[in-house]
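Could you join me in thinking about how sequence relates to backbone shape in a protein? Label the sequence line and the structure token line clearly, so we can match residues to local backbone shapes. Once you have written the record down, we can walk along the chain together.
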Amino acid sequence: MDKDGINKKTVLSFALYDWAASPLPTLHNTFIFAVYFTTVIMPDGGTVAWAWMTALASIAVALIAPFSGAFADRWHCRKPILFWLTLIAIICGIALWWVAPDQAMIPLALIASGLLIFSLELSFVFYNALLPSISTRETIGRVSGFAWGFGYISAIAALLIALVVFVLPDQPYFGLDQDQSEHIRITMPFAALWLLVFLIPFFLYVPEPRASTAKEGGLAEGWQIVRQTPGMLRFIITRMIYADALVTLFAFGGIFAATVFGFSQIEVLIFAIILNITAGLGAILGGVLDDHMGAIKTIRLSLIAMIALGGVILMTASPQVFWIAASVMGLFIGPLQSASRSHLSRMAPPGAEARVFSFMMLTGKSTSFLGPLCYGWVVWMTGQDRYGMLVVSVLLIIGLILLKDTPSGDQKTEAKG
């Protein structure tokens, strides 16, 4: 143990799960495989099929998370459930290697992709629930921020390796056949093996919390905990709203840059890399801020900064100003996400962490379609992507208005009590 009461090896091992798990959804959902599916495997109707598959996976996560969270809390089996969910994701990632450029592969691509998205997203309920057991109230912000930042940096590192080694070379390494898209398909086993290798320290050195004396129970008791803990339900709803803003930003940020500022495909990719790097650095630095002044103040500062920078982006016609403002915005995206996790971890009663995070997952997944839907509706009504991005600002403003100080989640306030 160090002077702060935490085990550095345990914290590093905890963060390595974020490092291990982040590249797979980045390469699969966002940059490589999703594009491959919609442009090569199923060019006609592929976007709709992919959207439906993603939506069904998210709905399944929302429906199952509260029940599985209650089960994990009752039987103290967060790590075993996390292990099996991660194993499913690894198997599905490897299976995508066999998705050749042939329409006969559409069912395999959609089933394996849906299971991959479902298992990885659900796994974070149990991963987040372990955060309080490997940190203290005085250090939970730094630990959360360090792990979240690790994930962002890992995703970009893996993406760059995949691009340089597999995707971009005119003559692919390892004898990969470009005509069969093997240089694209190999990125999925690569990300799956990345997950397999780097998760090993997590399962070796992060302990399963001991049984607590907290009242145990199922789904109904979990809802009672959320409802009766002062400020928890309000915070989960508030977080749901500004999380929808982030979902919309991630979904349409590249499209906005291309349609409004004329970014090329390479420029969009560079923009995404820079945004992820600044978000990762922001998460790490924001964790220190979280422990120093509390999670709620960190969240409030992040929301205010993002709203202000969003206003600059919406008003400017200069690509250079957009580059600067968007890059700086990334510094506040990471702390917003990380501090939300640490805040809820501080609020959760011992032994009920999985249930608390499962309800956060339920609310997040249940409404994650609203931001993108409103964005599309505004663009359809106005014909301007610039007006569509107003949706992000409005959701951030609503989140800021609803955000309320909750002493149970603020370490400094609790220390005074």
Q: What stands out?
A: Residues 244 and 370 are 7 Å apart (CA to CA).
